[in-house]
Design a protein that fits this description.
242 residues; mainly alpha; 11 helices; globular
Length: 242
């Protein structure tokens, strides 16, 4: 049941993004610079889009942790421990990413107000885009990246060391896991401003990269290769841009 629920939530999130991304009424106002500023309606649409994007992009890569939590909890219930629904753990995890989504929406608003997003897909200019590529690529080699990724790649180890009882404990574990996940992925997520905030292909590519980093054996080698590629691309853009 949990697997089906995760699949349905992910499908619903992607369906919303596809509908939103193909709607001129929504996509155009969200991405075009507006000297008059966003109204309350557009700010709400942007915040909602980013939050749904977090569900669509991050829930698949969090599924191994969520399913492992479910199995461990079921074993503990069989031993007479209190029942705590899996959604409590999920709520803690997604609350952290929703917060990140709101921060990203505020960042988009700031870029919009300063006319730094220059296309209908919500891309930043080449100078800022090149800088973000170099930042994301460099972060792939950082100690923080490796430390956070190790927590995300070892669900059972995380639960054994972080386990807390009750609903509050499940929420806390979800929040802590979400924090490690953000620590692992935040720099790559900023690349949405490079590929285009409304680009479904860019969303899918990053979601696939997040999933690969957490599941593929020796993914740190792939991560470093991606990091080098991002740095090289960013430098090329900065050098070649007028």
């Amino acid at each position: 049941m949990i697997t089906i629920a995760l699949g349905m939530l992910t499908l619903l999130a992607w369906s919303y993004l596809v509908i939103t991304g193909t709607s001129r009424h929504v996509a155009m106002p969200m991405s075009l610079p507006d000297s008059g500023g966003w109204g309350l309606e557009m700010a709400a649409i942007s915040a909602l889009m980013w939050c749904v994007m977090m569900v669509a992009m991050m829930l698949p890569s969090a599924s191994p942790m969520i399913l492992t939590y479910t199995r461990v909890h079921q074993q503990r219930v069989a031993q007479g421990r209190a029942i705590v629904p899996t959604w409590c753990f999920m709520a803690g995890y997604m609350a952290i990413w929703m917060g990140f989504g709101l921060l990203a929406a505020a960042t988009q608003w700031g870029l919009q107000q300063n006319a730094l997003i220059s296309s209908t897909m919500g891309k930043v200019g080449p100078s800022l885009g090149g800088g973000l590529l170099i930042l994301a690529g460099s972060f792939q080699f950082s100690q923080l990246k490796r430390a956070c990724l190790s927590k995300c790649r070892s669900p059972l180890s995380f639960l054994m060391t972080e386990w807390r009882e009750g609903i509050t404990g499940a929420l806390t574990m979800g929040i802590r896991h979400g924090a490690y996940c953000i620590g692992c992925c935040w720099a790559l997520m900023l690349l949405m401003f490079v590929g285009g905030v409304m680009s479904l292909a860019w969303m899918a590519a990053l979601a696939l990269l997040f999933l690969m980093e957490k599941l593929v054996p020796n993914a740190h080698h792939v991560g470093r290769f991606i990091g080098g590629l991002l740095i090289a691309t960013g430098l090329s853009i900065l050098i070649l841009s007028p």
